[in-house]
Automatic annotation (TrEMBL), chain A:
Residues 3-125 form the FAS1-like dehydratase domain. InterPro entries: FAS1-like_DH_region, HotDog_dom_sf. Coiled coil: none annotated. Residues 128-163 are annotated as: Disordered. This is FAS1-like dehydratase domain-containing protein. It comes from Rugosimonospora africana.
UniProtKB/TrEMBL annotation, chain B:
SUPFAM superfamilies: Thioesterase/thiol ester dehydrase-isomerase. Residues 22-124 form the MaoC-like domain. Belongs to the enoyl-CoA hydratase/isomerase family. This is MaoC-like dehydratase. InterPro entries: HotDog_dom_sf (IPR029069), MaoC-like_dom (IPR002539).
């Protein structure tokens, strides 16, 4: 199941803001009108995702047991530049179950977001691996509820140690 | 704000370490600035009362902040346009006041589709020695083969 596509215009001001927040030192992020985006910049596409963007949104999900395990970005020709208008679609690429170290099962969901430019060329892929544990982490967070997009489901980033 | 010179294809061999980046101690302001920039406003990373009610001693780092810093660390070294693949896996949490060190090592080199590609293994390590995140990246290095 693929989500409804949504537009994500890559804006220079957002690049500057994101670059500053992630300690970037390259001056091009701040000075170049056609700056290449920082490697994890596509996280900010959550601002543009519509309500139909997250294909798993309607499933029942216990957010108090949900963790962000991994995040991956693939850029066939490097990250997109300021001025590009991307169109994003999301789908569940994979689901699997693992046994947790402290017992219980861990349900993994790999959410793939594909970004294409105005010409339809695949510019970027982003993979979020979300982990739902069968019991709450010992000091698990309160259920924060789904994020604005489901691109980066909120939760404690403490999970990879168990995978 | 001078960025280090790009590392050359010739200079990089398997097992070559990247120059380390030792960051300033993490602050709550860093978390807020990243959360505002990214749109992930999970209060567990900036609301002390909320974090304590959830059973934590206080707020802790939003993982995509060190992941993002690891990304710009790579971009500083190899150039923003060089990134072909970048993956981060989260391990133990980090906290305000933590001093994180960003480092990596070359694990592969290949020429493919006219590009010289270097593969890297990366780590974000706390001052305790604990691993906050592990990373893997492929970067284009030195233009056409």
């Amino acid at each position: 199941m693929t989500s409804e596509p949504y537009e994500f215009p890559v804006e220079r001001g957002k690049i500057r803001e994101f670059a500053r927040a992630t300690r970037a030192r390259r001056t091009s992020y701040f000075d170049d009108p056609e700056a290449v985006t920082p490697p994890t910049f596509l996280m900010a596409s959550s601002f543009w995702a519509g309500p139909g963007a997250a294909p798993f949104r309607d499933e029942s999900r216990d957010w108090s047991r949900t963790l962000h395990g991994e995040q991956e970005f693939v850029f066939p020709a490097g990250p997109p530049r300021a001025g590009t208008v991307l169109t994003a679609t999301q789908r569940v690429e994979d689901t699997y179950t693992k046994q947790g170290r402290r017992g219980g099962t861990m349900e993994f969901t790999v959410l793939l977001t594909e970004y294409r430019d105005q010409a339809g060329t695949l510019v970027a892929q982003a993979r979020s691996t979300v982990i739902e544990t069968s019991r709450a982490p010992e000091k698990g967070p309160e259920p924060p509820g789904p994020g604005s997009s489901g691109v980066e489901p909120p939760g404690a980033e403490q999970s990879g140690a168990e995978s | 704000m001078t960025a280090p010179a790009e590392l050359s294809w010739e200079a990089l061999a398997v097992t070559t370490p990247l120059p380390e980046f030792v960051d300033e101690p993490l602050t709550r302001t860093d978390f807020v600035r990243y959360q505002g920039a990214s749109g992930d406003l999970n209060p567990i990373h900036h609301d002390e009362q909320y974090a304590r009610a959830a059973g934590f001693p206080g707020v802790f780092t939003v993982g995509m902040l060190p992941a993002g810093i690891l990304g710009t660390y790579l971009a500083d070294l190899f150039g923003p346009e060089s990134i072909r693949r970048f993956r981060v896996q989260f391990r133990e949490q980090s906290w305000p006041g933590d001093v994180l060190t960003y480092r990596g090592v070359v694990v592969g080199r290949e020429e493919r589709d006219g590009e010289r590609l270097v593969t890297l293994e990366l780590e974000v390590v706390r001052q305790t020695g604990g691993v906050h995140a592990k990373g893997w990246a492929t970067v284009a290095c030195g233009g056409a083969a």
